[in-house]
Amino acid sequence: MVVGAFPIAKLLYLGVRQMSKPVANRIKAGARRSDFFKTYCCMPPAQLYHWIEMRTKMRIMGFKGASIKPLNEEAAAELGAELLGEAVVFLIGGGCMVLEYSRQAANARRKEEELNETIVSLQTQIAELSLTTETLSAQLREVNRVLLSFPAPTKK
Questions:
Q1: Neighbours of 147 (CB within 10 A)
Q2: Backbone angles phi, psi at 28, to 5 degrees
Q3: Pick from 13, 12, 156: which is nearest to 94 by CA?
Q4: What is the maximum span of the chain, computed from C-alpha positions, in angstroms?
Q5: Phi and psi at residue 14, in whole multiples of 5°?
Q6: Element (H, E) at 84
Q7: Distance from C-alpha of 85 to C-alpha of 105, rounded to nearest angstrom
Q8: Which of 45, 50, 88, 142 is 20 to 30 A from 64 via CA?
Q9: What is the pLDDT of residues 26-68, one digit of tens each?
């Protein structure tokens, strides 16, 4: 039984993706503890997300002029940390996809180059065989010409 090559790259990508969730959880915990991170990195995206979400819901329900109150600081920090964690997971997954795509593209390019080299080699061999065939054909014509130049033997 023939076993294919072990897909070590795919295994590494899977490991990185599995590790992204705990990394995202650590980043979220750090974001909740740090006031600077909470104020400048978590709360603005959370407030923007809340505003867009509520605006969309209000428009779907038919309320056009309703004002949207911002989230309180604790809820905004929590939502921002969640958004940040999901963004980390998404970016790691996207990075893995891009790396896998580039690896597959490189493999396809390598296989195509090998195929092109094989085709060129075969064309060269065909040209050499064609030249050899022409040479042998010319030698055969020469031998036939020499044979025809001898006088025919007479029967007694």
A1: 8
A2: -65, -45
A3: 13
A4: 129
A5: -65, -40
A6: helix 73-149
A7: 30
A8: 45
A9: 877 887 788 888 888 889 999 999 999 999 998 898 887 778 8
